[in-house]
Amino acid sequence: RVSLEEVLQWSQSFENLVTSKYGPMIYKTYLKTEHSDENIEFWLACEAYKKITSQRKRISMARKLFTSYIQPQAPNEINIDSPARKAIIRNIQEPTQSCFDEAQRIIYRHMERDSYPRFLESQFYQKLKHSLQTNGNTSMGN
After folding, report:
1. Domains in the chain and their CATH numbers?
2. Per-residue pLDDT averaged across 7-11, rounded?
3. Which of 3, 39, 51, 98 has a CA positioned 20 to 30 A from the CA of residue 105?
4. What is the rounded CA–CA span in Å between residue 78 and residue 134?
């Protein structure tokens, strides 16, 4: 269960939000309301991708990422610039651990600048924080 402590840390930095236990899931629920949940999905998929050690698995995951998020008219197409997209297209046959890094960075900055501030202001986040504050969170010293 999410704690007040964790929820309060999210407002300190975007990094705190996306690297916490429940943050990505809750942020994704919020992004769905903005119809941009492909951003966090792509970012999390890239995090998982970087941990793959088998080349065979890496190739299949890279293709999956490419067809879902990168290629023109992809079902969950992310908003990255043409050079970043072209670089991925060039590397997709022999995908390295880092071939999505630039796209991931672009999407991270985009979320941090754009939807993250709105998330903090949203009813969604405020209500969550409020409900945890009023439930007299027991982990906050008795």
Report:
1. 4-136 (1.10.167.10)
2. 97
3. 3
4. 38
